[in-house]
């Protein structure tokens, strides 16, 4: 079935799709079965050749049905979105596990129609995004993703109101105040940790929970939940697998920024817990274009090259046949001796990652003798398999099937790919809808948001923890010449779900 979007009016956004086929039923976040294993039911396959098969997970929780899944051919009810103005311009960036979205020109979202007034909607959700200013493109893409969740799952009792943070801390505070005056039951966003800090007191004074898109654990807690990917969980996943594979001695080559330092801190803790050790640690300037110095230092190149030269000189002083043959073999080498570590963690991404991996190989740190390790931002590195020095590397990433499905559907809706973190807006909105439909107590109280059995979303299984952090599951991938192979699948249920 087709989908239809109609014209946009200023500050009021609504969607009236005609009849539209829901692709990929797992894209609706579904609350997992308490104290039971969930039965997977295969959904009808999409007609698109490249679609990934998806499955529907029945939705239940300890207190009863959380959400009745819609049929594939269901006509989606009219969903409405209203916007409200907000104030002020900032340059702060926060810990970012995913690459920043380039501010490239993009086609505008399809026009949207004048909404019905829904002052009497039972559940009002505010979403705080930079809809103007430096990050306007990113904010619009997150709002577009949230709207897809509304189309997929919402009924007439649910309305979402966008509020413009203008990409500033002051703007975020003003947007939160306007959201509270509007009477929202839950706030989604804002994007950056610095903005979350200004929103927190406003939301707390009104008794409204916040599900933000930040990944900084420093702003989590006391009614604020962060949905972003925190470094600690990814680090734990990759270190756990590497140690299982017998790797105990590590080097780290990290960007000298907030993200790099957060990864290193998490890595040190994960290594200590597993009785492994870090034998080399180097930082590099994330704005640099030449990484030769830190790569050479990690590779212990100078010492190993000197050892080779000394060995050659010693052999050249001899006149026996064995020495001559050995010398001939050494002519092909640039270093002598092994490095003192089994693996190198590279938290970088994109062209920076490719350049560093290539330099390590140039300085005789080669796989599989020394394994290169990475985190989920590797999954956002275009054509990563085309870099020969990264072949056989391992990295932790969220399961990709639903993410690919979501990205395809987003392109079908809007004619352009979404930002890498647009999935957070979809999942946050879908989570709110599922809880609203659970009809159990205060839908968005911290106790309701903390579901021990979790939710299944675009980026796989996750649950909000009492301390305010989203706990996620990761698969371990190995890069191949044609993409990657899964070395260890992600968990399909949380262990010890009661805690």
Entry keywords:
single chain, 499 residues, alpha/beta, Rossmann fold, seven-stranded mixed beta sheet, 22 strands, 31% helix, 18% strand, disordered N terminus
Give the helices and strands, then pairings.
Elements: E1 12-15, E2 30-31, E3 41-42, E4 55-56, E5 60-61, E6 64-65, E7 79-82, E8 123-129, H1 136-153, E9 158-164, H2 169-182, E10 186-188, H3 193-206, E11 209-212, E12 224-226, H4 231-244, E13 249-255, H5 258-273, E14 277-284, H6 292-298, H7 301-316, H8 321-330, E15 343-345, H9 350-362, E16 371-374, E17 394-397, H10 401-414, H11 422-438, H12 446-449, E18 455-457, E19 460-464, E20 470-472, E21 475-480, E22 483-488
Parallel strand pairs: 7-9, 8-9, 8-10, 10-11, 11-12, 13-14, 13-15, 15-16, 16-17
Antiparallel strand pairs: 1-7, 2-18, 3-4, 5-6, 17-21, 18-19, 19-20, 21-22
Overall description:
- Helix 1 (136-153) runs parallel beside helix 11 (422-438) and helix 7 (301-316) packs antiparallel against helix 8.
- The protein has 499 residues and is α/β, with parallel strands linked by helices.
- The longest helix is centred in the first third of the chain and has 18 residues, at 136-153.
- The chain has 12 helices and 22 strands.
- The protein has 2 domains: 12-229 and 400-468, 3-Layer(aba) Sandwich (Rossmann fold), CATH 3.40.50.2300; 231-300 and 339-397, Response regulator (Rossmann fold, 3-Layer(aba) Sandwich), CATH 3.40.50.2300.
- Helix 1 (136-153) links the parallel strand 8 and strand 9 (158-164).
């Amino acid at each position: 079935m087709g989908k239809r979007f109609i014209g946009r009016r200023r500050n009021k956004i609504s969607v009236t799709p005609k009849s539209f086929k829901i692709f990929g039923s797992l894209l609706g976040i579904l609350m997992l079965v308490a104290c039971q294993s969930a039965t997977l039911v295969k959904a009808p396959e999409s007609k698109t050749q490249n679609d990934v098969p998806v499955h529907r997970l029945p939705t239940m929780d300890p207190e009863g049905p959380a959400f009745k899944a819609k049929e594939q051919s269901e006509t989606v009810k009219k969903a409405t979105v209203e916007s409200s103005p907000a104030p002020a311009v900032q340059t702060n960036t926060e810990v970012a596990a995913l690459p920043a979205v380039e501010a490239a020109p993009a086609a505008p979202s399809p026009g949207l129609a004048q909404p019905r007034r829904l002052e009497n909607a039972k559940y009002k959700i505010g979403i705080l995004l930079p809809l103007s200013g430096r990050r306007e493109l990113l904010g619009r893409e997150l709002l577009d993703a949230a709207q897809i969740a509304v189309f997929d799952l919402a009924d007439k009792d649910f309305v979402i109101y966008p509020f413009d943070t203008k990409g500033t801390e002051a703007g975020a505070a003003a947007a939160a105040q306007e959201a509270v005056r509007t009477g929202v039951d839950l706030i989604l966003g804002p994007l950056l940790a610095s903005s979350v800090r200004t929103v927190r007191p406003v939301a707390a004074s009104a008794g409204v929970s916040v599900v933000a898109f930040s990944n900084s654990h420093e702003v989590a807690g006391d009614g604020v939940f962060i949905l972003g990917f925190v470094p600690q969980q990814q680090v734990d996943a990759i270190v756990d697998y590497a140690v299982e594979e017998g790797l105990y001695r590590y080097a780290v080559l990290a960007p000298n920024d907030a993200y790099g330092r957060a990864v290193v801190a998490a890595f040190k803790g994960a290594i200590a817990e597993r009785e492994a050790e870090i034998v080399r640690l180097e930082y590099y300037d994330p704005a640099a274009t030449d990484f030769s110095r830190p790569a050479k230092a990690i590779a212990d190149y100078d010492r190993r090259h000197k050892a080779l030269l000394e060995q050659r000189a010693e052999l050249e002083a001899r006149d026996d046949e064995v020495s001559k043959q050995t010398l001939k073999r050494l002519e092909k080498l640039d270093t002598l001796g092994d490095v003192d570590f089994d693996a190198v963690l590279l938290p970088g991404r994109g062209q920076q990652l490719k350049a560093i991996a290539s330099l390590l190989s140039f300085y005789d740190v080669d796989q599989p003798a020394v394994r290169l390790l990475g985190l989920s931002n590797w999954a956002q590195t275009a054509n990563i398999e085309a870099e020969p020095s990264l072949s056989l590397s391992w990295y932790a990433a969220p399961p990709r099937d639903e993410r690919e499905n979501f990205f395809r559907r987003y392109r079908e809706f809007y004619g352009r790919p979404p930002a890498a973190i647009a999935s957070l807006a979809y999942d946050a909105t879908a989570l709110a809808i599922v809880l609203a439909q659970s009809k159990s107590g205060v839908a968005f109280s911290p106790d309701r948001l903390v579901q021990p059995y979790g939710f299944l979303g675009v980026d796989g299984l996750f649950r909000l923890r009492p301390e305010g952090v989203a706990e996620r599951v990761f698969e371990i991938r190995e890069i191949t010449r044609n993409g990657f192979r899964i070395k260890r699948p992600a968990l399909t249920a949380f262990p010890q779900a009661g805690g």
